Structure formats: C-alpha cells, structure tokens
Amino acid sequence: MNQQNKIRNDWSIEEVRRIYHMSLLTLTYEAAHIHRQWHDPSTVQVCTLLSIKTGGCPEDCAYCGQAARYHTNIKVKPLMDVGEVIACAKRAKESGSTRFCMAAAWREVRNNRDFDNVLEMVKGVYALGLEVCCTLGMLTADQAKRLREAGLSAYNHNLDSSENYYQEIISTRNFNDRLNTLEYVRRAGISVCCGGIIGLGESAEDRIAMLHKLATMPSHPESVPINALARVSGTPLADLPKVQIWEMVRMIGTARILMPKAMVRLSAGRSEMSTIEQAWCFLAGANSIFTSESEELLVTPNPKLTEDRAMFELLGLHPFSLKENQKLDLG
Ligand code: SF4
C-alpha cells in the first residue's frame, strides 16, 4: 500500500473542524482514499466482545444500562468462570474472530481474586493466538504491567466525549482519570483502544474536540471505536433521538483522515443500521466490527453472525485472517 500521507499528531482544532464539516461526499471520498493507502479496503477485522461481568456498576455513566443506580432490565452477573471464557474465545476463533475483548462492569480494577482470574483469562486467550483486549475500568500502572505480562494486546478505555461534555454524562470520575489510565496502558506497552460515543446530546464542537484529543495524543490509539448511543430504557439518555447514519459516517471519515493507521471500529449501533448504511461506514474507513454469540454488544442488541456473513459476502469483504492480525503488530 502506498502510504503517501504522514502520520500527524499536531492537528489544529481548526483543521479538524474543517475536515469534520466537509461536504459528506467529499469527506467520504477523501477518507476512502486515505483508507486505501494504509489498509486493504476489502478486509474487516471481526472482534468478539464478551461481557465477563455484567451490571451492578457503581459509576453513573448516563448512557449505560449496567450502572447499578438506573432501573433497567439488565440482569447482574458475577465474573464468569475462566474455563467458560476460554471456551467462548475458542468458538469466537472458529467463527472467524481474530480479536477477543473481555469487558467487566467495574469502576476500577482491584487487586483481588477476580483480577487474578482475569489474568488467567488473558493468558488462556493469548495462548489461542488471538489478540486479547480488556475493558475493566480504571487501572494502576502496576495492574497494566501485570496485564501486559499475561499477554494482553490492547486495553479499551474510551474518552466517550469531549472534555467539556464529559461532566454532563458522568460525575463519578473525571476526564483526567481516563487519561491517566490510558497513560499507564501505553507505558506498559499495551496498545490503546480509545474512541467515543455520539448521540449523548453533545454538539458537533464536542465531537470535533474529542477527535482532536485522540488525534493529538503523542501516539494515536491503535484502535478507535466509534459508537452510536444504544438507548437503554431506564437510563437518563433513553429518550434521546436515534443517531443518524450520516453523523456516524462523518465521525468515521474524520477519524480515518486524522488517524490513518488506526483500526477504526464501527461499534455500537449496528443493529439499527441497514447493510447499505454499514457499507457507507466501511467506505468512510471503518475496518472492524464487533460480534458476539449472544447477539448483544454487552447489554444492547447486535446483528446476528449470519447477518454479518451475508453482509460481507454482498459487499465483497472478508474478515482478517490470524496472519493479517500478526501483520498489524498491535501487541
Ligand atoms: S460504562 Fe462502564 S464504568 Fe460506566 S456505568 Fe457502564 S459499566 Fe460502569
């Protein structure tokens, strides 16, 4: 691939604003062009996301059905058994996933038996030859190091929104807490998975500020998930309007132009998108999706594996092979 564009970490907010507000067709065209310089546009990484501990979280993220304080229908489940998680990862590998992500609804990691079990899960998934990602809440520098030693490839910790808007959606921690965990992850040699959610009631300027923050980190996140709010009944944001597909395309296209090398992941919200709408996201530079056996992305609906296979066939896409995974050098 002809990588003409250099990686830049010095984007100005004006430049990001100009890219974000390009006409949609021009933005998609430019993003598709850059996407083709850095990636094979016919391949999409399929990641499996498993909720290893569900619900009962003490945090107050206004979008999240797993926060204990909201009256949702989510069933609280304790940390899964290590063997069960490894068996799930094996099935994910057999069905074409090359990255296995484990999510626990915790505020932060504690040095206890549950963390020891998570380390065993990481070791077991790593031994299968999959990329291993975790999202467990806030970490200390030492915990990040232990996860790395266990074989963790990546850690997910989203910025969610702009620094300004962050306090409107979460009051139990602040933006700097997020940045600290990301710093520990980076220093431990783990690749960073960090993106955000749109549709939280934020403005275009908040979206631009979030993308600017990601694109001006000393190293771009290797993985940038772009989520559309999945409205969960019982949460404060349940009645917000559905995110329009063009807003997702705009976010993905801008992320692709700003961070050409990153994996841009079309994350929550796919169950409300048609194949044509998802095709626009791939065209704008998305090159990864999440699947799960339960047809849920954590606690919100996600397309069936069979639907995704049919979509790939129709669009001429194919999932990354494990060999292509290694080429990514994300670990
Ligand atoms: S998003 Fe994570 S930290 Fe926030 S309430 Fe949900 S599970 Fe807890």
Automatic annotation (TrEMBL):
Domain of life: Bacteria
Free-text remark on how the cofactor is bound: Binds 1 [4Fe-4S] cluster. The cluster is coordinated with 3 cysteines and an exchangeable S-adenosyl-L-methionine. Binds 1 [2Fe-2S] cluster. The cluster is coordinated with 3 cysteines and 1 arginine.
Entry's Gene Ontology molecular function annotations: biotin synthase activity
Cofactor: [4Fe-4S] cluster; [2Fe-2S] cluster
Sites where the protein binds [4Fe-4S] cluster: 57, 61, 64
Record keyword Transmembrane helix present: no
PANTHER family associated with the record: BIOTIN SYNTHASE (PTHR22976), BIOTIN SYNTHASE, MITOCHONDRIAL (PTHR22976:SF2)
Assembly and oligomerization: Homodimer.
Record-stated family: Belongs to the radical SAM superfamily. Biotin synthase family.
Function recorded in the entry: Catalyzes the conversion of dethiobiotin (DTB) to biotin by the insertion of a sulfur atom into dethiobiotin via a radical-based mechanism.
Keyword Nuclease appears in the UniProt entry: no
NCBIfam families per the UniProt record, alphabetical: bioB
Organism the protein comes from: Olivibacter oleidegradans
Reaction(s) catalysed (UniProt annotation): (4R,5S)-dethiobiotin + (sulfur carrier)-SH + 2 reduced [2Fe-2S]-[ferredoxin] + 2 S-adenosyl-L-methionine = (sulfur carrier)-H + biotin + 2 5'-deoxyadenosine + 2 L-methionine + 2 oxidized [2Fe-2S]-[ferredoxin]
Positions contributing to [2Fe-2S] cluster binding: 101, 133, 193, 265
Name of the top EC class for this enzyme: transferase
UniProt EC number: 2.8.1.6
Pfam families associated with the record: BATS (PF06968), Radical_SAM (PF04055)
UniProt gene name: bioB
Protein name: Biotin synthase
Record domain Radical SAM core: where: 42-270
Pathway noted in the entry: Cofactor biosynthesis; biotin biosynthesis; biotin from 7,8-diaminononanoate: step 2/2
UniProt keywords, alphabetically: 2Fe-2S, 4Fe-4S, Biotin biosynthesis, Iron, Iron-sulfur, Metal-binding, S-adenosyl-L-methionine, Transferase
